[in-house]
Amino acid sequence: MSYTALYRKFRPTAFEDVKGQDHIITTLQNQIKANRIGHAYLFCGTRGTGKTTVAKIFAKAVNCEHPVDGSPCGECAMCRSIAAGTSMNVIEIDAASNNGVDNIREIREEVTYRPTEGKYKVYIIDEVHMLSIGAFNALLKTLEEPPEYVIFILATTEVNKIPITILSRCQHYDFKRISIETITDRMKELMDTEKVDVEDRALRYIAKAADGSMRDALSLLDQCIAFYLGQKLTYDNVLEVLGAVDTDVFSQLLRKVISRDVAGVLDIVEDLIMQGRELTQLATDFTWYLRNLLLVKTSDNIEDVLDVSTENMMQLKEESQMIETDMLLRYIRIFSELSGQLRYATQKRVLLEVALIKLCTPAMETSQDALLDRIRAVEEKVDKAAENMQERVVYVNGDGAAGEGYPGGSGAGASGRGRGPKPELPNAIPEDVQEVVKNFRSIADEASGMVRGYLKKARLSLGGDNRLLIVLPDSLAASVVGREDHRQELEGLIEQRIGKKVEVEVRYVEEGRHFEDTFVDIEQKINMEITVED
Ligand SMILES: [Zn+2]
C-alpha cells in the first residue's frame, strides 16, 4: 500500500479548508469580491502556518472563471490547470535557492508579457528574506510600477530581514501560530476521513508538540500512524513514538522530590532509562512542568494560559500547594542549567541524577549562602571533570609505570561548558629550552637503540617549571622513553650539548585525540621564529 503524507494529501485547495487564519482569509476574499486586488502581498509567520497554501488558493481565485463568494470554483479550466501545476500564470520561486540578481531580472523581463490565459500572473516568492541586496533592489523596481496583470506574493518566516522599501510597498499579513484546538480538530477530521482509529488525547498531544504549525502536526501524526499502522493510535503510542514522557511521571517525580525521597527519585530515573527515554528531552519537559507549576502557584485564572487538561490542572493545583515559590524557582534554575549541560554531555544519566539529588537535599535549603556555596562547589567539580576530560594525558613516572596519577578517573562528568580552553602559547620559552629544541633532532640521534627510534616520532612542548615535554604518539613509546635510565640518558645528552641541565618529562597523546588538542608545539614556534629572523 502506497502511503501519501497527510500534509500533501490534505493540503487545502479552497479557502474554507484553511484552518486558523480566518482574519486573513476573510480579507482576501473580500478583496476578490470587490475586485480590489493588490499587486504585492507579504505573508509572514512561522513555518507550517499556511502561507504558500493560501498564496496558491489566492492565485486560483483571482484567475478563476466563476469564483464563488471570493473562492475559486475548482472546476473551471484555470482552476484545474493551476491545481495541476501546469498553468503559466502561477510562478513559484524558492528564494533560498534562487536568491541572486539574475533570478529577479528574469522575472522583470517576464512580467512585461501579458498572461495568455486567465487574468493574472501570480509570482509566489517563498523565503523571500533570503534574497541578496541586489536582488531586493531589482525586485523593488518591479514593485514600484507593476503591470496591472501581475501580483507578487512574498512569503517569509523572518520579516525583520526584509528591507523597509519592500515592506512599504506590500500589503502585510501575519499568519498566526495555529491553536492546539484548531490543529486537534483538523487532525480529527482527517483521521475520520482516513478511517484511522485514534484517541483524542493522542491528537491533542501531537498538536501541542507541533507548536502552532499544522505542517509539523501532520508530519508527526504521519510518523505515529506509520509506526502503528493498522492499530488504534493511543496516547501512550504517541508518547512512545515521539520519545516523550507522560506528565504523570513528572508528577510522581516531583512528589518524590518534595518528600526528599532520593531512592524513589532514582528508581523513577531507572525506569525512564529502561524505557529508552531521551534524557535531554526529559530534562526540558520537566523544566516546563515546573514552569507550569510556578504559573499555577503565582497567578489566578491561569487555566486559559496553560494548555493542560482539566485533570492535569487539578494535579498542578494540588502540587502547587505542596511547594513554596522559592523552592520552585530553585528547581527551575537547576534544571535549566542541567538542560544546557546535557546537550553536550556523555554521562547524561549521572548529571540528571546529580541534579535531582540537589533538588532533594534538605541542607541546601537552610540558607541562601550555603546554598550558593554548594552549587558553586558542584560547578567547580563539574568544571574540573571537564578539564580532566580535556587533558586526559598520562604522566609517565620515572619507574616506567604508566597511568599513575591519571586525572579524572573514568571520564565521568563532562560538563557541557564548551570544550575547555585550547592550549595556549607560553609567554616566554626559557633560553635553555629553546636551545634544546633547536638541537633536539640531532641530540635524539645520539640516543641509544630503541629510544632513538621512538624519539623520531616525538613532539616537543613546554611543561610546568619550564620542563621540556617530550610527547610521544602512544603509551608504549612513552613507557620506553620515560624509563628512568632512558630519561637520565637523554638529560645527560642534553647537558653535554648545551652545557646546562634541562629537566625532561615524557608524556603521550591519549588515544583518539591529537597532539594539538592538549599541547603547544614549541618546536614549530621556535623554528618559525628562526625563519623570520633569517
Ligand atoms: Zn475556477
- How are the strands of the largest sheet arranged? 2-3-4-1-5
Q: Assign a percent range to the helix content.
A: 40-55%
Low-confidence stretches: 393-421
Query: What is the total number of structural domains?
Result: 5
Strand content: 5-15%
Roughly what is the average pLDDT, rounded to an integer?
83
The count of strands amounts to 9
How much is the radius of gyration in Å?
34 Å
At the fold tier of CATH, the topology name of the largest domain is Rossmann fold
Count helical runs: 24
For this entry, give a set of tags.
534 residues; Rossmann fold; Helicase, Ruva Protein, domain 3; Zinc Finger, Delta Prime, domain 3; 5-stranded parallel sheet; 4-stranded mixed sheet; 24 helices; 9 strands; binds zinc ion
